[in-house]
């Protein structure tokens, strides 16, 4: 137990009378960010007075301040008082606790913000250090120091470098090594055929995420081929951490953010907007409004960043472009667009029904389409949630099953807007039911970025929602059949 | 992003001028707990002025206050303002988002304190609820509400019941179901033969922990065999959560704490103290001093608990008994005790060396003993850390290898005291080397309870330390050979 609130504690004592002043300044910052978020909502054509959104600007402002509190923290304050004298053997006979006494803390779950697009990314941080000067640091401080730098706008390599050098300077050990595994939410690709590529994505095993591993070393860890790196990586391997591509100091991690590859497309004359439905239909790429871009630059400034810093120059535009995908009207237009195939099917179904082709209504067959990927944006936190949708329905014999592409389009249609998962689930079954009739059930499984960032930080958590219509509501065995189908698919896909 | 600090924020605004007064009262509480911790350290025969311990009382006090902040939190404050209107279908056609619209949040990592022995235990919390009244609750609030009750002294079943009923009353949904998987640190059994039972314990897969799963339901979840429970459990199964033994309302979870079974032993006339070395030698069971028991009762009172509450009556005594295992002098005495076999080996080795049996010094063989379990108590936080030790050494041909039981005793000897992992690792190689001579290497892999509780809450994290002596320090291939051996063992044992 313990050192938990040391810093907080000290700050409170030190500040004394200044507390109210600091609080006042913080209110101004929160208010500035809230106003900027209001501008963003307006730019998306949203009514910021509707109930789901009314507190969103304040929520986003507070969470951003908390999520980037690293700008206001000092490593010195954290490490101070957590260095403990510890005898070591530095004699001829060996180095237990001395130069050979590697200490490794593995699997520290953190999150950070991508400086290229402003979306949070997940970090699994592994720190190794070799004590010297006969002192060790409290283990939890390795986590706290890493957190200081994670809670800023970052690039994986810089994050690794900063954690490494600050620990090296703060603890003054024989050496420090840092390995980060980072996951960035993946965007649907232009000409995306995600629904074919991803056969059995399971939310937990990080499909739908781009991964990059980086490392940094100082002191005895400086040489990447050194002996001590071998020990460090061996200890990581014990915990199942396998590092295929380890990058050190390479500039390539700069381009890990998927928004960067879209920059290139823009340069090459392609669309400069993400196109969620592009494999079915084209949407008008809406330009990012200047007012929104300015609003995001204001937010960067309020967080204590310099929007002119070279890595941040394109960030407001990229973030706004990401947001513009969730402009409701964009998608409304496109519902018509995706209809080419659907309309055909609807017509033929309606015709069949009219013609009484439904000869024997009990001759129905259970059908399902599983693992349809989706992306959406949480309207409470303006953060993505994404995952897969499973849809089950009953097909009357003689009628064509609903095409997977159509179901995928319906999923995208309801996903690409400011949403909540419960509503998304309901809207999907309602749409499928209203177009194709009858008995529909959907399970939506999602990772919410708002659950891994924001102080909640429930990294492993995931959310599932169920909606049922018709027979799936009244007949438990129908529901069970569908859930079993999903379960079987998950088992074989894992 | 968002609602993160809503409560904190509001409290700050509401309190206004009372802030200093509250701060003053808090200082008194912290000071009371610190004094009690000082009494505990004195009872353990420790010098609370030695550098490793000097800040321990304050650390423990602050962490305990933070870890039990649930006593000072109100569910109403958390849920208020996080209920969002959401249309549902409650018509004849089905219940999307209505009574059939199950919402499940899985794998929320929490920790709580065992009311039987005061040690923290890990919780994986799964919450399902069926919205009604056309409103849903922000997903993160399910986590926050669960956390309020986790951060108190708890028993798994009561925790499940309290989370369930408070969500049911706070959200007023059609029903709430709660499933908890709880892990309690395991104590070595009297007449323990752990080193034989546990073949390949890996730190991460929760060996060395006792597990219990409990559930609670309200509204449509009240009947345990109901339809909606089937859906909930199916969604948990998607994420690999398999529940073999689910308890509901049974009193059996009361007895999950291993300290409880020792109560029974005491009643039956057996030792009432845990005996870490009992399979080798007997130790004098030291009675728990009354001053220490009173100190723990004072802590309970300071946290806002009633030490006379029936479930807490025996807790101070049990906690002190656990602590007494880490009384340094206890163990010093017993080093002689465990020597029966060791002394014999040492004699024969020394004799061999004297007689020049070491015919050809280059004829040595690499030997290792892996996965020796250990328990220890972090001296910075007064919280357990435990895991496994791997020891490698070179055996001169013709000399008997070191018995596993002896290495296990050395590990226990250095484990059962107030420790830090770095020192433990060094002391193990030093002892093995001084008794048996030469080239020794140890890897200690541990879970630190202080890393999963205390606001750090890095649940998946684990710590590994290496110490090397002799050839393992100078010959990289020797070290590599050992690490590869451990790696192979981990792979086959998983």
TrEMBL record, chains A, B:
Name all GTP cyclohydrolase I domain ranges: 33-185, 294-486
Q: Provide this UniProt record's keywords sorted from A to Z.
A: Hydrolase
Q: In which pathway does it act?
A: Cofactor biosynthesis; 7,8-dihydroneopterin triphosphate biosynthesis; 7,8-dihydroneopterin triphosphate from GTP: step 1/1
Q: Which superkingdom, per the lineage? A: Eukaryota
Q: Which Gene3D superfamilies match?
A: 1.10.286.10, 3.30.1130.10
Please provide, in alphabetical order, the Gene Ontology terms of the cellular component aspect for this entry: cytoplasm
A molecular function annotated in GO for this UniProt entry is: GTP binding
Give the EC number(s) under which this enzyme is classified. 3.5.4.16
State the InterPro entries in the record: GTP-CH-I_C/QueF, GTP-CH-I_N, GTP_CycHdrlase_I, GTP_CycHdrlase_I_dom
Full protein name: GTP cyclohydrolase 1
């Amino acid at each position: 137990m313990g050192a938990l609130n040391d810093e907080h504690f000290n700050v409170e004592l030190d500040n004394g009378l200044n507390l109210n002043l600091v609080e006042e300044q913080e209110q101004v910052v929160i208010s500035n960010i809230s106003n900027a978020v209001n501008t963003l909502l307006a730019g998306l054509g949203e009514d910021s007075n509707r109930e789901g959104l009314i507190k969103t600007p304040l929520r986003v402002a507070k969470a951003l301040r908390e999520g980037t509190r690293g700008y206001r923290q000092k490593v010195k304050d954290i490490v101070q008082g957590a260095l403990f004298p510890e005898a070591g053997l530095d004699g001829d006979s060996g180095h237990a606790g001395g130069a050979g006494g590697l200490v490794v803390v593995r699997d520290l779950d953190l999150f950070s913000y991508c400086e290229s697009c402003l979306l949070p990314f997940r970090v699994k941080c592994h720190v190794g250090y070799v004590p010297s000067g006969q002192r060790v640091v409290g283990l939890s401080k390795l986590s706290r120091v890493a957190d200081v730098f994670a809670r800023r706008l970052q690039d994986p390599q810089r994050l690794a470098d900063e954690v490494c050098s600050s620990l090296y300077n703060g603890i003054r050990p024989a050496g420090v090594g840092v390995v980060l595994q980072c996951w960035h939410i993946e965007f649907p690709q232009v000409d995306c055929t995600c629904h074919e590529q991803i056969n059995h994505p399971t939310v937990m095993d990080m499909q739908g995420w781009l991964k990059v591993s980086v490392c940094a070393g100082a002191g005895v860890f400086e040489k990447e081929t050194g002996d001590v790196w071998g020990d460090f990586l061996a200890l990581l391997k014990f915990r199942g951490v396998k590092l295929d591509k380890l990058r050190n100091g390479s500039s390539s991690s700069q381009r890990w953010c998927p928004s960067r590859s879209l920059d290139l497309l823009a340069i090459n004359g392609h669309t400069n907007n993400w196109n969620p439905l592009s494999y079915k239909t084209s949407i008008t790429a809406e330009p990012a409004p200047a007012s929104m871009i300015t609003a995001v630059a204001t937010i960067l400034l309020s967080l204590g960043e310099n929007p002119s810093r070279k890595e941040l120059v394109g960030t407001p535009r990229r973030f706004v472009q990401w947001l513009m995908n969730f402009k409701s009207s964009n998608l409304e237009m496109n519902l018509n667009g995706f209809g080419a195939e659907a309309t055909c099917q609807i017509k033929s179904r309606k015709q069949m029904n009219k013609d009484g082709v439904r000869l024997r209504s009990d001759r129905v067959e259970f059908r399902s389409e599983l693992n349809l990927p989706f992306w959406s944006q949480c309207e409470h936190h303006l953060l993505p949630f994404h995952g897969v949708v499973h849809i089950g329905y009953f097909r009357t014999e003689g009628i064509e099953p609903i095409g997977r592409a159509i179901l995928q389009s319906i999923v995208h249609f309801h996903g690409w807007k400011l949403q909540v998962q419960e509503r998304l689930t309901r809207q999907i079954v309602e749409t499928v039911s209203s177009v194709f009739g009858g008995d529909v059930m959907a399970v939506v499984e999602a990772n919410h970025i708002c659950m891994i960032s924001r102080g909640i930080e429930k990294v492993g958590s995931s959310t599932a929602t169920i909606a049922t219509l018709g027979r799936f509501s009244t007949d438990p065995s129908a529901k069970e059949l569908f859930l079993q189908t999903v379960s079987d698919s998950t088992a074989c896909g894992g």
